[in-house]
Amino acid sequence: STKTSLLVALENVQHFSAQRLGALLENVSGFVADKDFCLEMRPETSTAVVTLLKRIDAEEFVKLCAESNRLKKLKITAKLLEETHSIKAEIVPGGVSTDHIAACFENVSSGGGPVVDVQLLPEERSAITTFCSPKGKA
Fold it and tell me: What InterPro entries does the entry give (predicted)?
């Protein structure tokens, strides 16, 4: 079973810089960027991922965003992200072995962890890596 992580996805943020969005979230939530949360912009999907750095209730953070008239007006939505045991790596070079991919993702110094399985999807030039624990993801 999956459980809620300390990650929140913000959708429809394509018109914002990280600094401007961070300031907006500070106003909405009362939390401080880079102290209470960090923000990673994903321009290719018009989203941002908020990582809550302290013991902040992620559900409460999403609720504050949902109740914000400012975010409603800007059509920015927030939702909880669930922890997962698998990730998809894209643009995987042809001929790469599952052992090589597993070795890369098991590198603890890069945030990796024990890998249970690697499934190559050559037609998509991608691979799905499954970890023993949702904590072990690079």
Answer: RRM_PARP14_2
Q: What is the DSSP letter of 122?
A: G
Each residue's pLDDT tens digit, 31-46: 999 999 999 999 888 9
In angstroms, rounded to a whole number, what is the distance separating the alpha carbons of residues 96 and 86?
19
Ordered by start, the domain boundaries in the chain are: 7-80, 86-131
DSSP string, 7-74: EEEEES-TT--HHHHHHHHHHHHS--BTTTEEEEEEGGGTEEEEEE-SS--HHHHHHHHHH-HHHHHT
118 with 102: CB under 8 angstroms?
yes
pLDDT in tens, 47-87: 999 999 877 888 899 999 999 999 999 999 999 987 778 88
Whether pTM > 0.70 for this model: the answer is no
